[in-house]
């Protein structure tokens, strides 16, 4: 059998303008790319247009743009030097007071951020230009605007480059021939380092009224040449920004209002992740004051995905965004335990909030009758009725468990003091009335210091951490039965676990729930901090006394003029403060360490995967409900995930959220989407697939092999696929249950061939990787081989969704290798030839 050599990407149709084939609802890109440029073998710029070498006009235009770009980079260098100077000055100039130190840290953090933004702008600083119709501009307005990664001004404060996020840059993304907004020409400028390598021009002046022109414009695809070049480029294992080619439907979402909840539903490859990240950058630019201190949180499905998207925001000059999975949102816990679907499914249900609440209440106990506790030479009794009263008072304080504990203890100590006093009074002449309130106070103090009394009270109302609460709950049938009476015995068995050393992502919202109900009793920590502070003040006073002493001695000795010394400027309090001045941390660091941090804006990617309990946790992090939720209900894998946005959000938002749809698939070629559509129909015939923006001419194939030859065939096909056609990255996607066996078989044949994702963080930059379908969520590769679809479908109740995710990952080619019969929904695959 010979390896099938895929044809290279063909953009079908006639040269620009772009065409939309409305019968097929599929965009066919033009054959030639206008003004596409490639450095030739000698490093000079060779320019072609539709395959024909370009003329001197274009060469001259490139030279013009180069001159402009050089000026921009000069200004960038000026800013860099100025910022570095300012930073050095800020570092030097501090009066040494805690306030001064803190101001210095704030200033240096600001300059560091600015340097990071300047560094990010180095690549592709300027990528666009708009030329306006003079009739549409006032005399004060420039007829041309350059668009880039950041705003750049001349020394005279004349605008040289507009930040892509500024309102003035919008026509670059929105203007069409039908609605040009005064724009006559949109130019995409490509550069490598500081050198202009090419330009793509689009005229927005309708010269004819051809239907194709009008349709193309209506479709809202802008900058088609640059867009298609970006889409067809090889992938690297890291996501890139799309700032140069944002499309109109995406732009609307990116720039939507900060307030309120926006839900973005879109099929595979519609740019949901890209849009979500650019929205974060846009919001930080537009609402910097409001968001700088509260921060923006981006939640993704797993750490592999976060690493995949990790460089997008820094490349846009934004570093003040927190990225996290649900599993890592609880400070101090890294939830890496993988557990069975039904277990995670159950833990994700909202009813678990009630289970955790009951589990906490069940730890607030009262004795069956009484508990006898030795005290002095006698004993005291913790009585059931007293405990009931104390518990009632503690609960009605509405404090969380660990804080209400103080009320319970105080009440019980009071009861015990009265008991003790009564007993003492009965033993002395004159009876209990001989003891007054101060005597009772002393008795209480004694009781509070008695370890046996405290231990007995602790049994009734223990101080608990969330981890302890859940471990104890999972470890005991009785505790589970008491906390979850509504669950069946089989369901409670799913929750049973002993000797817990690791947590799963589904445990994290439960830990968070427990933390809310338990609260942190920080009275001991506060008292410790105060004692430490008092010690430091004492120490500082000692230092000042020594300085004072030596100053007087100096003054007496040589009779010199009085010198100004430390104690003239600062007191002991201030000196102590200076000693323990904390290192200023960034918003991202402070937020990560603080479970109760509330973010100014929340972005949730692959949001369909979130369980009701995960949503509950996230809503606590975002009380203002300023959020962007992006996902696809057809791609849900998590057993507790959602297939309906209304259902997922109703408990927190009611109907106060706005839905936007993304409809164009930028990733997956049309040939593959034709097959994927059948899978989508099997998930839900009502769902509509996004329209692919391009074809590759390469039909997705299937190959049946003998079970014993699966690994060998896989290596052969992967090698052929990786070597042919567009090359780039290749992923082998396998079901969770199969991956270990297959990885071992492949490894024994060809060590190091396809590193499998046996750890939680596979290296996506390797040319060939093996992943589970779950790990591939949100990722993309040039080429993909899906192994044994029947097994993927079988693996979970949402196996068809997983298959849909798997086959929509490629940007170029898809192959399917199987030993079992294929599910009929894959009938559209062609036999491998
Ligand atoms: N306007 C654009 N310009 C260039 N590339 C784009 C554009 N929009 C999307 N893309 C590219 O399309 C690919 C798919 O985007 P993205 O991963 O954001 O899609 P998605 O909707 O999140 O997909 P999925 O739901 O399948 O995970 C990425 O390579 C992205 O860079």
TrEMBL record:
Cellular-component GO terms for this entry: cytosol
Pfam families per UniProt: AAA_19
InterPro entries the UniProt entry points to: DNA_helicase_UvrD/REP (IPR000212), P-loop_NTPase (IPR027417), UvrD-like_ATP-bd (IPR014016)
Domain of life: Bacteria
Chain segments annotated as transmembrane: none
A single GO molecular function term of this UniProt record: ATP binding
Name of protein: Helicase
Biological processes annotated in GO: recombinational repair
Keyword annotations of the record: ATP-binding, Helicase, Hydrolase, Nucleotide-binding
Residues given in the record as ATP binding sites: 266-273
Keyword Hydrolase: yes
Domain UvrD-like helicase ATP-binding: from-to ranges: 245-669
Keyword Chaperone (UniProt): no
């Amino acid at each position: 059998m010979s390896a099938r050599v895929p044809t290279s990407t063909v953009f079908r149709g006639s040269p620009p303008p772009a065409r939309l084939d409305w019968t097929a609802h599929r965009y066919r890109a033009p054959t030639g790319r206008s003004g596409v440029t490639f450095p030739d073998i000698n490093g000079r710029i060779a320019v072609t247009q539709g395959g024909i070498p370009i003329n001197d006009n274009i060469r001259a235009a490139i030279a013009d743009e180069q001159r402009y770009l050089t000026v921009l980079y000069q200004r960038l260098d000026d800013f860099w030097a100025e910022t570095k100077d300012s930073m050095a000055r800020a570092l030097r100039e501090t009066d040494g007071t805690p306030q001064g130190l803190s101001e210095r840290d704030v200033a240096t953090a600001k300059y560091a951020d600015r340097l990071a933004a300047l560094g990010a702008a180095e690549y592709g600083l300027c990528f666009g230009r708009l030329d306006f119709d003079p009739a549409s501009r006032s005399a004060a307005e420039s007829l041309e605007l350059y668009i880039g990664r950041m705003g750049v001004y001349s020394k005279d404060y004349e605008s040289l480059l507009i930040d892509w996020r500024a309102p003035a840059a919008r026509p670059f993304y929105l203007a069409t021939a039908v609605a040009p907004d005064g724009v006559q020409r949109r130019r995409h400028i490509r550069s490598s380092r500081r050198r202009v390598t090419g330009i793509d021009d689009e005229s927005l002046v309708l010269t004819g009224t051809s239907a194709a022109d009008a349709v193309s414009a209506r479709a809202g695809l802008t900058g088609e040449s640059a867009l298609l070049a970006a889409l067809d480029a090889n992938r690297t294992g890291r996501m890139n920004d799309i700032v140069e080619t944002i499309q109109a439907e995406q732009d609307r979402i990116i720039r939507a209002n900060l307030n309120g909840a926006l839900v973005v539903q879109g099929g595979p490859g519609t740019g949901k992740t890209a849009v979500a990240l650019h929205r974060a950058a846009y919001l930080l630019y537009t609402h910097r004051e409001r968001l700088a201190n509260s921060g923006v949180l981006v939640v993704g499905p797993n750490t592999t995905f976060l690493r995949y998207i990790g460089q997008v925001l820094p490349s846009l000059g934004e570093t003040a965004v927190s990225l996290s999975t649900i599993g890592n949102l609880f400070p101090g816990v890294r939830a890496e335990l993988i557990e069975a679907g039904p277990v995670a499914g159950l833990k994700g249900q909202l009813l678990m909030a009630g289970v955790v609440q009951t589990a906490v209440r069940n730890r607030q106990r009262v004795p069956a009758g009484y508990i006898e506790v030795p005290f002095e030479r006698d004993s005291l009794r913790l009585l059931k009725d007293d405990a009931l009263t104390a518990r009632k008072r503690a609960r009605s304080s509405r404090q969380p468990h660990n804080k209400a504990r103080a009320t319970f203890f105080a009440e019980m100590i009071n009861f015990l003091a009265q008991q003790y006093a009564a007993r003492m009074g009965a033993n002395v002449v004159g009876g209990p009335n001989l003891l007054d309130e101060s005597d009772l106070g002393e008795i209480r103090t004694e009781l509070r210091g008695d370890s046996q009394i405290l231990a007995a009270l602790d049994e009734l109302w223990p101080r608990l951490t969330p981890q302890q609460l859940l471990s104890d709950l999972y470890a005991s049938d009785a505790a589970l039965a008491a906390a979850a009476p509504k669950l069946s015995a089989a369901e409670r068995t799913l929750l049973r676990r002993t000797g817990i050393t690791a947590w799963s992502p589904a445990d994290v919202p439960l830990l968070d729930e427990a933390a809310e109900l338990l609260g942190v009793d920080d009275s001991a920590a506060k008292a410790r901090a105060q004692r430490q502070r008092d010690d430091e003040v004492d120490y500082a006073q000692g230092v000042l006394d020594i300085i004072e002493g030596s100053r007087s001695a100096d003054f007496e000795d040589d009779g010199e003029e009085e010198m100004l010394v430390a104690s003239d400027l600062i007191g002991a309090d201030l000196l102590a403060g200076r000693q323990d001045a904390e290192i200023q941390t960034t918003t991202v660091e402070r937020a990560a360490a603080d479970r109760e941090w509330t973010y100014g804006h929340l972005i949730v990617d692959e949001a369909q995967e979130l369980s009701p309990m995960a949503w509950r946790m996230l809503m606590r992090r975002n009380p203002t409900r300023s959020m962007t939720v992006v996902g696809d209900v057809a791609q849900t894998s998590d057993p507790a995930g959602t297939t309906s946005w209304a259902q997922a959000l109703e408990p927190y938002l009611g109907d106060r959220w706005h839905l936007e749809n993304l409809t164009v698939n930028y990733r997956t070629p049309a040939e593959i989407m034709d097959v994927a559509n059948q899978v989508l129909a099997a998930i839900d015939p009502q769902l509509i697939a996004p329209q692919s923006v391009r074809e590759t001419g390469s039909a997705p194939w299937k190959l049946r092999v003998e079970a014993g030859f699966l690994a060998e065939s896989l290596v052969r096909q992967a090698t052929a696929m990786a070597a042919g056609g567009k090359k780039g990255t290749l992923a082998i996607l396998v079901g969770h249950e199969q991956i270990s066996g297959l990885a071992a078989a492949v490894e024994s044949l060809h060590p190091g061939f396809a590193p499998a994702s046996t750890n939680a963080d596979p290296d996506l930059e390797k040319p060939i990787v093996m992943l589970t379908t779950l790990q591939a969520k949100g990722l993309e590769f040039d080429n993909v081989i899906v192994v044994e679809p029947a097994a993927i479908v079988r693996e979970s109740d949402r196996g068809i969704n997983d298959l849909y995710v798997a086959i929509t990952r490629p940007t170029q080619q898809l192959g399917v290798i199987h030993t079992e019969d294929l599910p009929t929904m894959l009938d559209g695959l062609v036999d491998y030839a």
